[in-house]
Amino acid sequence: MKQEDGQEQSNENGTDTVKEYGQMTLGRKGSPGRVHLLSIIGEIEGHELSPSSTKTTKYEHVMPQLAQIEEDEDIKGVLVLLNTVGGDVEAGLAIAELIASVSKPTVSLVLGGSHSIGVPIAVSADYSYIVPSGTMVIHPVRTNGMVIGVKQSFDYFKKIQDRIVGFITSHCNVKKKRLEELMMETSSVLTKDIGTILVGEEAVDEGIIDEVGGIDQAFRKLNKMIKLLSEDK
Asked: How many CA atoms lie within 13 A of 72 on its CB side?
């Protein structure tokens, strides 16, 4: 399809991509500030399919797109929008690792919420924002289905949780001890559960998110990072 000024624009970066994957590239091709918008919405789907009525982000869509972003010289930065309830641990960590390894400037913005495995994704960017009403749920690893109650099973869950804690603490300012305290909190508002809900400024105060802000601040920060990187080259 064509924009009003006659510039060619493929469906890969147009409304079809937004509809199917919640992604688009903003800015004219070849411009110094071209930014890819990546949204992590609903449940992060892993190796098992979620019900058709569930809003999901599929890791098999996100991972190739991140690889393409890394290789596309016209894309100068990535803005990650998050409103997720969490989901598959392995898929979420894989997405977080990929975002963290992108060589271009990345900024994340937590909107409605970034819960559970959404926390590593939120902190994987070079700089992170959360809106004042945004929430983050910090809790230990959970699983569905039958679990054999033996030491090996609990050791396995501990290793998974250590991976998550290690990633989070290496990509933000929260300390390991404090993060584990938040995960195991029993007096919070999580009824019949353990963990902590952080709202807006609380996530910043804990050192998990860098700053409270919205889409305007996120774009300004990303454009500044892009400009600084181009000046250094």
From this structure: 20
CB atoms within 10 A of CB 66: 21
Reported as half-sphere exposure (CB side, CA atoms, 13 A), residue 51 has a value of: 2
More confident residue, 214 or 156: 214
Q: What is the pLDDT of residues 134-182, one digit of tens each?
A: 999 987 766 655 555 556 665 666 778 888 899 999 999 999 999 988 8
CA-to-CA separations, 75 to 24, 33, 154, in angstroms, rounded: 11, 8, 43
Q: Which of 39, 115, 128, 139 is catalytic?
A: 139
**Tokens 């998550």 label which residue?**
164
- 116, 124, 128, 171: the active-site residue: 116
- Residue ranges of the alpha helices (H) in the chain? 15-21, 59-71, 89-101, 118-123, 151-171, 176-183, 201-205, 215-232
- Active site includes 139? yes
Q: Which has the higher per-residue pLDDT, 47 or 130?
A: 130
Residue matched to tokens 């809106």? 131
Amino acid at 218: A
* 36 noted as active-site residue: no
What's the DSSP call for residue 12? G
